Amino acid sequence: MDTPRIRILATGGTIAGSAGSAIERGYRPGQIGVAELLGAAETLGLDAAFAGRDIAAIGSQDIGWPQWDALHREIVAAMADDGVDGVIVTHGTDTAEETAFLLDLTLPAGKPVVLVGAMRPADAVGSDGMRNLANAVRVAGDTAAAGRGVLVVMSDQVFAAIDVRKAATGGAEAFRGFPRGPIGNVTPTSLDWFGPPDRSGRGARFAWPDALPKVAILHAYAGMDADAVGCSLGNGAAGLVLAGLGQGNAPGPVIEALAISGVPVVRSSRVDQGSVDRNLEVDDDRYGFVAARGLGPAKSRILLQVLLASGMRDPARMQEEFDRR
Ligand SMILES: NC(=O)CC[C@H](N)C(=O)O
């Protein structure tokens, strides 16, 4: 293949983070702009041609609608540009799963779109940023990366947006995939996919919304009372996601309050692994709840926001979307 032409959209995060010294513990994410990032990437001698754009320079804990809207617009433009073969988004790791999944729901299968981050700042000893970026270049430049949805590259592994979660607060290998683990292994000089693309030719699942409605996540715990439900509704939540116990459970009074909340309710789990299925201990049919299946709370919230933005209200229709992969 000809030298792949990669567009890099920078948003910040630890991959652009700096402590000012290799032995400094504290650091600030989003300190290194795309020009400097590209300069560093050029020195690696990768077989790729780069162009870049700064979308934001933030820790991803601060990401939200304005950055997502800009990012989506830039990626759509890059997909339509004959001079671009693949897109890389540099991103903080804290909310990479949310951004990746939102883009996954709203972009057509076409050119590869790859999110990449780092767990150690650029000037730390053993920084993982440049290796992850080199790996992302390898993936974004591979035509077989298209048709797999939005991808996340971390620690020599490729994850699909629908599976990926940040599963550890520290260490370079902080990302896991559920229910599928990684769908490929990557190094700067190799790329192995574990199967063929599963989304080839698919259009965008949802149109890009005009805005995302307010949806709250309620984290369940032993002894939880129903206050959180009332607070969220009082603050204008248009939907609620329960980060429930085990299979999406919560104490009886919480379930009862959710049932009469008058807004769509998705039951997910605070547990990292496994799915939440319908009508196991909670009678979803009776209460009108939606079971999150394989999606964790953060991604359940994104999907519920997109469904609400599309005008959907019927829990049965919503369940079909949560059942889809
Ligand atoms: N490893 C990281 O990228 C964390 C830095 C920051 N909290 C962010 O998510 O952007």
TrEMBL record:
Species annotation: Tsuneonella dongtanensis
Binding positions (substrate): 60, 93-94
Family statement drawn from the similarity comment of this UniProt entry: Belongs to the asparaginase 1 family.
Keywords carried by this UniProt record: Hydrolase
Superkingdom of origin organism: Bacteria
Active-site residues (renumbered): 14 (o-isoaspartyl threonine intermediate), 14
Location of the Asparaginase/glutaminase C-terminal domain: 214-322
Entries under InterPro entries matching the protein: AsnASE_II, Asp/glu_Ase-like_sf, Asparaginase/glutaminase-like, Asparaginase/glutaminase_AS1, Asparaginase_C, L-asparaginase_C, L-asparaginase_N, L-asparaginase_N_sf
Domain L-asparaginase N-terminal: 5-195
GO molecular function, one term: asparaginase activity
Enzymatic class: hydrolase
Enzyme Commission number(s): 3.5.1.1
Gene: ansA
Cited SMART domains: Asparaginase
Alphabetical GO biological process terms: asparagine metabolic process
Protein name: Putative L-asparaginase
SUPFAM superfamilies xref list: Glutaminase/Asparaginase
